[in-house]
Automatic annotation (TrEMBL), chain A:
Pfam families: Gaa1 (PF04114)
Membrane found in the keyword field: yes
Name of protein: Glycosylphosphatidylinositol anchor attachment 1 protein
Lineage of the organism: Eukaryota, Viridiplantae, Streptophyta, Embryophyta, Tracheophyta
One annotated GO biological process: attachment of GPI anchor to protein
Top-level taxonomic group: Eukaryota
Keywords of this entry: Membrane, Transmembrane, Transmembrane helix
Residue ranges of the TM segments: 21-50, 464-487, 527-545, 557-579, 591-608, 614-633, 645-667, 695-716
UniProtKB/TrEMBL annotation, chain B:
Organism expressing this protein natively: Gossypium mustelinum
Protein name per the record: GPI transamidase component PIG-T
GO biological process: attachment of GPI anchor to protein
Signal peptide start-end: 1-22
Keyword Repressor: no
Keyword terms of this UniProt record: Membrane, Signal, Transmembrane, Transmembrane helix
InterPro entries, per database record: PIG-T
Bilayer-crossing regions: 565-586
GO cellular component, one term: GPI-anchor transamidase complex
Length: 719, 627
């Protein structure tokens, strides 16, 4: 009250009282520079604080009850599994060229257990770019005409019906297996799955059916699982679209030999189904390993950063660590582990926590520096793989059908010892048994725990409520800066006009002029719109380029770049050359362009954070500083102060980093070293992005690239 | 006088007594002439191909129309007769089932499976003998009564959204039939105990003694049924006879703990079993009230063919050994479409007593493999699609090679057609688009009008009635596969309409696939003695072959059930903001404020004069107060 009174007195002209919320807004906008610095630093800092803020995981769904029952998997089952491993690694079984023999062995083993067995033949599908199939359900019937008998895979599927269950739900166990060149690890994973399977045929507690899918991975693990899922969920009834694999002689052979089996009714060459899938586990065993402990790696990221329910990971982690004594790993960005700056940051946090604890003993948030470094590396990889939008394993295919799935990769410590092999079969089998038993206990589907989270270690996570803060802080200055720029641009031009005319005449003669000037931003909006349109065109171009036959990645990339530049120029010239419309009178034109760019970036980032948070976060880290700092280089050169010089340097650096290919090569160089960087790599990477329907691709094409172009155009603005 | 009169009275008394005795004797004769209440207990054992054993208990009580003794019964359960009289039930069937009937290995063509294979959960249908507009009311009362009788949540079938009215595809075709299922009802002992209470000997004597709960519920399939039929002139209602059939079908695994240790080479030999090893109990004599009390062992056609059993050599059978000598052996009447015959061994329980309990065992000597007779087409149903918005139901029919013989037998004239009836009820929240019905025959899309001969559809009404689809398909006999798909939208429910475990998903009850062209019946020779056995006479009836498909689980979108709290907080916030700003706006007088500001501007005084004026005003004010 006193303030306003004072103000009104000092301003001579009394103003009506302004609402506090509006006043706050005006205050923030007028101090946007300070606010943006504070917010951005806080955002980055919050991101680095996430490993410290991570909470311990806990099993949220009470029905899971992991580890409450003692494992029933005995040495009998292990020796059964061992028998299968021996039969599969036996050189006789590999005599056949197509590897059909080993499929037969597996099928026979399943049949002997009393399971229902069927083969599923599939043709690997080429991943193609379908511009309009982003976000569409995987129903899309990709029909290929030129199927040949030479290329098909055979999935072997065994189903145990729960003796007293109603068959409404099923649990899927997947073991990828390449019959042609299977390593010992794959055979071992089959052995583990078989020993669990043989146990599950005898148990009485089964409430859900068990499906064991031996996915033929000669055309990739994902392709096999995806083909099976497609057939399971969206079968084609008409023969026009299904490949006639039955005509191929090998396949017929397969069925004939099985036909004479004694329990003939259990085997069928038709596709067999169980109920709605409750969860899926993909089991792999790594061949070589240089670790000193038996470890198990969990891969959870599915397409577009979707994660399975956290409870599934919790159950695996709990059982592996507390019951089977395995070490659990989640993917880490290894280069980060050795970085000294991260270590020192961790030490700073640690010492800060110590100080805080000494001040008030209840503040316990510190973690040791080494743990912090590991947490950050895990968090970074978690962010990276989610942002990439490409599934990290065959489990990704399940997530497309809303089935929670993870890949477990067991890496045994040393190899080729019988005792050791039995041990790994027993422990791996008991782990799988425990997980299946827990999921079997579930009455409802997974819903209790988190779906949106980042892992900082197998037993620590950051939930959406926490990691959103860092992102929100990062993008919070954007609307403020946009508003302040807009206000500045308007008021400064007002002032310049006002200086020329007499101050008394402003009120009535310039009413019209103000109205026109306040709509001036439309001009900039047009420019921004055109650049975004160009972005859309650029992201559609690869579809046409990929149609060109026999094109190496490098040439494709070059064609893409050329076409993009060409299209930008044509668009520029056709649509009234918006880049060159900066007239001398509108010296603050760049401010308006920047304001509209920032708003569009804000909208784009906001939308992306809903679709794939990690992409938006990484994008915000790159784009927010660039957008905020962008200022015509000329102005900075003209000013010649230290501050403007710093800004100039920052602008130039950011202008290079934020260019998507540059960012890609930088990241790649950081991870793999700069030695083997190739221009074609970017094309390959982009190809993989669209093949997996990753929204990141759209984001780069339609948000990041236009933003970069606009910022660069601001940098080189002539004013 | 008194002395004289006494003998007269005595005489009179004697006379009346004699007369009464006569009358009573006459009465009993009369009753025998009518029909007496009867009770029969039978058990049928049948080895199944996948090393399992089917045990089918069949108890039948019949209450004749009884005008003479009013509402009193000797054997017949009073609760049931009252139920029938009250609700005028013509026919009713209630089944409690746990587990799935495995049509592929346990067969689907014989009378045993086509009448005893039931969908999981509770299934109830009833035919009423009341005017059309009273049926729904009777049904509702009936569900409540049964729910009380059997300790089950049958009363949930009361709401119109859960039961349906099949027009013609449901086998006991009649307009007065109501049909409802509860697929997720858990079945356990609490349902069995009231069921046993209806038996005159409960489970204290006779064959029912075998019903040992732990071994029953350890089984792979368990279906407990109650079938009621009113006979006679039912228009008056009161004097109609009632036949109550109580059946319990279980599929058990004989000595499963030994099967683990069996080596691979011996795995193919069927496990040997005996009544005591399966049920852990023996039959120590019949229930004294039961008229026929017998145990049967059925070797079906496939098994007897695999054993090389024919009508000549079934006495001297080398492949298995029975621990007790059968009292009689029945051979199936040879039929046109199969060479092999079923064989039925009969054992009479009456001969056994406490000291010498009845225990039949079967020892296999050589491995035998055979297959049960299957339905002409094997039906399976599944969900298609993904996501929370749309999906499709697909019913796929696959021919089983077993019935090719029948097909060729039926297709003497060139145009052979196989009729398949499909009866499908879908809950209202599964919004089926009937126009999207598609038919595929042998992997070729076909026009719906070519294949579907007759279709009856009653679309669902939200929260009112389920959708019903009855289809008659005419398929060519040589069909290999056929598929029916229909799309649906997943509806949204109100928060109070969700079931307790909403995140599990919602069930679509089983569809019924029936083959009206085919009838499953087993006619045994030596008919004269068979009249006594209700079980065998039931086998002789021609019942249509039908099979149930799987229950489907549709995941629907579920709200966050902690949401009421969130909703309350957010609405409170919104209300607070709204009313706060509204009051603010209402309270504010813009014109006055402006005038005030203008007045201030007009004054245009500096700070010091303003302070002075304020001070003086205060002083003056205080001065006034002091005054």
């Amino acid at each position: 009250m006193a303030e306003t009174k004072e103000k009104s007195l000092s301003d001579e002209k009394p103003k009506p009282r302004v609402r506090p919320i509006v006043r706050l807004g005006i205050f923030l906008i007028s101090h946007s520079f300070l606010v943006s610095i504070v917010c951005c630093t806080a955002g980055v800092l919050a991101l680095f604080l996430l490993p410290v803020l991570a909470k311990n995981t806990y099993i949220s769904e009470n029905a899971l009850m992991p580890g409450s029952a003692s494992p029933m998997l005995s040495n009998q089952h292990v020796s059964d599994g061992n028998r299968l491993v021996k039969d599969l690694t036996n050189p006789n079984s590999k005599s056949s060229e197509t590897g059909i023999e080993s499929h037969k062995i597996i099928a026979q083993y399943m049949l002997d257990l009393g399971a229902e067995v069927s083969f599923h033949k599939f043709h690997p599908q080429m991943n193609q770019f379908h511009p309009l199939h982003f976000f569409s359900s995987p129903v899309s019937g990709k029909i290929q005409e030129n199927y040949s008998c030479s290329s098909y895979g055979i999935n072997t599927v065994g189903i145990i019906r729960a003796p007293r269950g109603d068959g409404k739900e099923a649990i899927v166990l997947v073991t990828p297996y390449n019959a042609l060149k299977s390593g010992f690890g794959e055979a071992l994973s089959l052995g583990i799955a078989y020993s669990v399977f043989s146990l599950l045929t005898q148990v009485t507690w089964l409430a859900k059916d068990i499906i064991w899918l031996v996915a033929d991975s000669q055309y990739g693990e994902y392709a096999a699982v995806a083909a099976w899922l497609r057939e399971y969920q969206t079968p084609k009834f008409s023969s026009l679209s299904t490949p006639n694999a039955e005509m191929c002689p090998d396949v017929n052979n397969l069925f004939e030999l099985k036909g004479h089996s004694i329990s003939g009714s259990k085997f069928s060459n038709s596709f067999r189904r169980a109920g709605t899938m409750a969860a899926a586990l993909v089991l792999k065993v790594r061949d070589q390993n240089e670790q000193f402990e038996d470890t198990i790696s969990i891969y959870a990221e599915a397409s577009n950063g979707q994660m399975p329910n956290l409870d599934l990971i919790n159950v695996v982690n709990y059982l592996a660590v507390h019951r089977q004594g395995l070490r659990v790993n989640v993917e880490k960005l290894w280069p980060l582990l050795n970085s000294s700056w991260l270590k020192s940051l961790g030490e700073i946090f640690e010492s800060l926590a110590k100080v805080a604890k000494s001040l008030y003993p209840k503040w316990k948030f510190g973690i040791p520096a080494t743990e912090y470094v590991e947490g950050t590396a895990t968090l970074a990889s978690s962010l990276y793989y989610q942002a990439l939008g490409v599934p990290t394993g065959p489990h990704g295919a399940f997530r497309d059908y809303q089935v929670d799935a993870i890949t477990l990769e067991i890496s045994p410590k040393f190899s080729l010892d019988k005792v050791w092999r039995n041990d790994i079969l027993l422990r791996g089998g008991r782990l799988i048994e425990g997980v299946i038993r827990s999921v079997n206990n579930l009455l409802e589907k997974f819903h209790q725990s988190f779906f949106l989270y980042l892992l900082t270690s197998p037993s620590k996570f950051v939930s959406v409520g926490v990691y959103m803060i860092a992102f929100a802080l990062l993008i919070a200055p954007l609307p403020m800066v946009a508003a302040s720029l807009y206000v500045d641009a308007n008021s400064s031009s007002n002032c310049s006009k006002g200086d020329s005319s007499t101050p008394s005449a402003i009120t009535d003669t310039d009413e019209h002029g103000i109205a026109i000037r306040s709509w001036r931003w439309l001009n900039s909006a047009k420019l921004v719109f055109i650049v975004h349109l160009w972005g859309a065109i650029v992201s559609l171009l690869p579809y046409f380029i990929s149609q060109i036959p026999d094109c190496s990645p490098t040439t494709s990339f070059m064609i893409w770049v050329l076409l993009s530049i060409l299209s930008l120029l044509t668009l520029n010239s056709v649509l009234a050359s918006p880049l060159a419309c900066a007239k001398a009178t509108q010296e603050k034109e760049w401010a308006l362009v920047k304001s509209v760019t920032i708003s569009s970036v804000f909208i784009g980032l906001g939308l992306m954070s809903v679709i794939n948070f990690a992409t938006a976060e990484i994008g915000a880290l790159l784009m927010v500083p660039m957008c905020l700092l962008a200022r015509p280089l000329k102005l900075d050169v003209r000013a010649g102060t230290l501050r403007s010089f710093c800004r100039l340097i920052c602008n130039l650096v950011l202008g290079h980093i934020a260019f998507p290919p540059a960012a890609f090569f930088l990241l790649k160089g950081m991870l793999d070293g700069f030695g083997n960087a190739n221009v074609g790599d970017f094309w390959m990477w982009v190809e993989s992005l669209w093949a997996w329907n990753s929204a990141t691709y759209l984001f780069i094409g339609m948000v990041q690239l236009p933003c970069w172009v606009l910022c660069v155009s601001i940098l080189f603005h002539t004013c | 006088m008194v002395l004289l009169q006494r003998p007269h009275i005595l005489l009179l008394l004697i006379g009346t007594h004699q007369f009464l005795q006569c009358w009573i004797a006459f009465g009993s004769v009369n009753e025998e002439g009518q029909k007496q209440e009867e009770f029969s207990e039978e058990l049928l054992l049948k080895p199944l191909p996948d090393h399992k054993l089917l045990a089918h208990f069949h108890f039948q009580s019949s209450g004749p129309p009884s005008t003479s003794n009013g509402c009193h019964h000797h054997l017949f359960p009073k609760a049931i007769s009252q139920l029938v009289q009250k609700f005028r039930i013509k026919e009713m069937e209630l089944s409690f089932t746990k587990g799935r009937w495995n049509y592929e290995s346990w067969g689907g063509f014989d009378p045993l499976s086509s009448s005893n294979a039931k969908p999981p959960g509770v299934e109830l249908w009833a035919v009423f003998d009341v005017p059309q507009h009273h049926i729904d009311a009777s049904w509702k009362n009936l569900t409540h009564t049964l729910s009380g009788l059997f300790c089950a949540s049958i009363n949930f079938l009361e709401s119109t959204a859960t039961y349906s009215t099949p027009e013609w595809s449901f086998p006991p075709a009649s307009g007065n039939v109501r049909y409802g299922t509860l697929p997720c009802e858990a079945v356990c002992t609490e349902n069995l105990t009231p069921w046993l209470k209806l038996l005159p000997c409960r489970d204290k004597a006779g064959i029912a003694l075998l019903l040992d709960r732990p071994s029953l519920y350890r089984g792979f399939y368990h279906s407990q049924q109650l079938h009621l039929t009113s006979t006679g002139s039912s228009s008056e209602g009161i004097d109609s006879g009632i036949i109550l059939e109580q059946t319990l079908t279980v599929v058990l695994q004989p000595n499963s703990e030994m099967a683990i240790e069996v080596h691979a080479s011996e795995k193919h030999i069927q496990p040997s079993w005996s009544l005591s090893s399966i049920f852990g109990k023996q039959v120590s004599g019949r229930c004294v009230l039961a008229k026929p009390s017998s145990v049967y062992l059925l070797l079906d056609r496939g098994l007897s063919a695999a054993n090389g059993l024919t009508s000549e050599n079934f006495w001297s059978n080398p492949s298995f050994e029975l621990s007790a000598n059968p009292d009689r052996i029945f051979l199936e009447e040879s039929s046109s479409h199969s060479k092999s015959l079923s064989i039925l061994y009969m054992f009479q329980v009456e001969k056994y007593c406490e000291s010498e309990p009845f225990d039949i065992g079967l020892m296999w000597k050589v491995p035998v493999a055979w297959l049960c007779q299957q339905t002409p087409l094997h039906a399976s149903r599944f969900l298609m699609g993904s996501g929370n918005e749309r999906a499709a139901i697909a019913i796929s029919l696959k021919s089983t090679q077993f019935t090719e013989g029948f097909m060729s037998a039926n297709s003497k004239d060139g145009s052979c057609e196989l009729r398949v009836d499909v009866f499908q009820v879908v809950p209202w929240y599964v919004k089926v688009y009937f126009h999207s019905l598609r038919v595929f025959v042998d992997q070729q899309p076909r026009a719906v009008s070519d294949i579907i001969e007759k279709i009856h559809v009653s679309p669902s009404k939200d929260k009112m009635s389920p959708g019903v689809m009855e289809v008659v398909l005419k398929l060519p006999c040589r069909v290999n596969t056929a598929a029916l798909t229909i799309e649906f939208d997943k509806g949204f429910l109100r928060i109070d309409e969700y079931l307790p475990d909403a995140n599990q998903g919602f069930d679509i009850p089983s569809a019924i696939i029936s083959f009206p062209n085919f009838h499953a019946s087993m006619v045994f020779l030596e008919d004269d003695s068979l009249n006594k056995s209700p079980l065998l006479s039931k086998f002789q009836e021609k019942c249509p072959v039908m099979s149930y498909t799987e229950v489907l689980l549709v995941p629907l979108t579920t709200p966050d059930f902690s949401m009421p709290y969130n909703v309350i907080t957010i609405t409170c916030t919104v209300f607070a903001l709204y009313f706060g700003s509204l009051l603010n706006v209402l309270q504010r007088r813009v014109a006055e404020e402006e005038r005030f500001l203008k007045a201030k501007a007009a004054k245009k005084t500096g700070r010091l004069p303003l302070l002075l004026s304020k001070l003086s005003a205060k002083l003056r004010g205080s001065g006034i107060n002091q005054n």
